[in-house]
Amino acid sequence: MEGVITYDISPIKGPLVNAFLILINTLFFNLKLVGPYDAYPRDYSQALLNEDEVMFDFIIVGGGAAGCALANRLSEESTWSVLLIEAGDYPPPSSDVPGLYFTFFNSNEDWKYYMENDPKACQVRSGNRCVLSRGKVLGGTSTISNMRYWRDIASNFDRLATPLFASKVVFDIFREMEGYEGTDQEQFQYTYGTEGPIYLNVFNYTSPVKDLLQDTYKAIGYNKIPKRKFLGYANHLTYIKNGERFNMAKAFLTPVKERKNLFLTKNTEVDGVVVNVPLDNKVGGVNVSIDGVKFFIRARKEVVLTSGAINNAKLLLISGIGPKAYLQSKNIPVVADVPGVGKNLHLHLYLPIFVSIGPCGEQPAAHSKEIDLIRDIFNYLIDRSGGLSHTGINQLATYISVRKDGTTTPNLGVYHEYFKIGDRALMAALDAVDYHPTVKKTLLETNQKKSIVLFMVSLLESASRGEVSLNDTHHLSNPKITPNFMTDDEQWDYATLLSGFNFVYNLTQVETLREYDAELLDINIPNCRNFKFCTMAYVKCYIHNMVYPNPDTAGTAKMGEECDPTAVVRKDLEVKGVRCLRVADSSVLGDIPTGNTVPADAMIGFSMGEILKSKWLKDYQSPYYNTEETPLDPASGISRMKDSD
Ligand SMILES: Cc1cc2nc3c(=O)[nH]c(=O)nc-3n(C[C@H](O)[C@H](O)[C@H](O)COP(=O)(O)OP(=O)(O)OC[C@H]3O[C@@H](n4cnc5c(N)ncnc54)[C@H](O)[C@@H]3O)c2cc1C
């Protein structure tokens, strides 16, 4: 039978949810009733296998946000052949369903990476280590993400900018990519583009608990974020169209899928980059595996790595591009001595805090009744409405500042999940994060009697940096990801998270929440048993056990000046010491954006297109990019946005 379902749906608990996933995927594959049929470019992997020699002008490694944006831009030039290589498959139809966003942890669409044991994080998890999900599917991590779209704070655009792309140009590129469909401009910090390929909107979702949380934030002075300000609460924009996730492959590949010069090969893993050493140190192409068959694909012009901050570092190291002594210690032939590869891994950190509350206007045990789930499934299939058509209060975020200097830009975000009494989703969520059995039991028992609000405090500007290196040289192996969380000398990261903990505790004391018997939960962490609940020692123990990485990643192939020994790529994102090999996603950023990384990745992929067109197309005048290597005149075009505008 065509399209037999092979998806690994083990993270989902409950036969009914499993049945739904199978149903939705079957409806798509066999009856074409759900999801976009034929939405993506044709797959050339089998055709490539049958060729004797394969060559393309440009090879893009990784079909995530950055790779899709770049493939779109480069294939505009019809005389160029562009190959996009993706290790994963087409997105499964269930990834289109917003309400299933939490089901992709540990699935076939996840690289399922884990980090080295770090005594300051994830100690409550099985194996005492943090996991780090990365999308292994067309659209990359944007296909399995929470769909939030928050670019960054305008004053931080300098951090996203390269010396070749001034911050005002970054703003112009964002606007060109964005297709905001809503009418509520006031809700957002500043104006979003409306004509671009990334469809954006807010979910039409309200609930008593969302109102309750908003009222609580208002009571302590955090109001709905006004236009172009950044402190307060907001309903996030999400990448969504007609009730379905609008992943970055839909945004950038679907509109150009018929281009004759754009080739996609899926289920194709790049095992290494080949460089012509000692001939001319120019990239020659990539080695790939398809169905276990290994072969070489030649690049006539350039190879661009857009495989994300973890996989880019892994690929560079496997290919002999990295710190010389380290490569030699691993018996990898040295192609280029680039000490910074894999260093400077920059992540946001999450501190989850569980608060129980009494009944809040909603029927208890809603999702424990199968009939409710069946109704949600039915409504979604009929007209994309109901409980599966949105991500619930995950869309509500509050940005706060706990800085002592009074600066009004946020350094913490607070995100939310809500579990009604007896909620099936809680078990699925706890299984996904794989907490110690005692903690799971405590939470599930509490949820039999009370609803639970999960506050996820996110450290937006962490000072510490991790590292990506190799466990072994196989391209599919888990790289060695060393977190180094909260290791900054000043202890800012710890202090800020502690302030975040206190912030949530204080919220529970606000009258609005007290009316609902809000109570910070002692979740029975075995490692913290010796400390009295809520003492300083307990809170420290709590933080080190519970903190985990938010899956936004950046920094492992940092861009910098020629003399900067920590820089991996030059200003035009070319890898030092290797001609015509570039990196083009958040890996090149020195600091992770305060906002989400999908917008930043797409923007960098888009920018890479301008750099390559300017180099390879005679007389190409980029509207964004000045080949004189100085930022464009800030007085020209759209003027730069400031937070105070
Ligand atoms: C659970 C979760 C929730 C998230 N929520 C949000 C959110 O709400 N908003 C947001 O903006 N960001 C979110 N993120 C982060 C965001 O999705 C990613 O940071 C972003 O998509 C990274 O984009 P990228 O293009 O750099 O890399 P990726 O999206 O990771 O894409 C890289 C692609 O390269 C492919 N690849 C890797 N190695 C190879 C290889 N050797 N050969 C061939 N192909 C390869 C991968 O399979 C992947 O498809 C979330 C992430 C996760 C995991």
Automatic annotation (TrEMBL):
Binding-site residues, FAD? V137, T141, V270
- GO MF, one example: flavin adenine dinucleotide binding
**Pfam families xrefs:** GMC_oxred_C, GMC_oxred_N
* Stored InterPro entries: FAD/NAD-bd_sf, GMC_OxRdtase, GMC_OxRdtase_N, GMC_OxRtase_C
Keyword annotations of the record? FAD, Flavoprotein
**Highest taxon above the source species:** Eukaryota
Domain Glucose-methanol-choline oxidoreductase N-terminal, residue spans: 56-349
**What's this protein's family per the entry?**
Belongs to the GMC oxidoreductase family.
Protein name, as recorded: Uncharacterized protein
According to its UniProt entry, this protein's organism is Exocentrus adspersus
* Organismal lineage: Eukaryota, Metazoa, Ecdysozoa, Arthropoda, Hexapoda
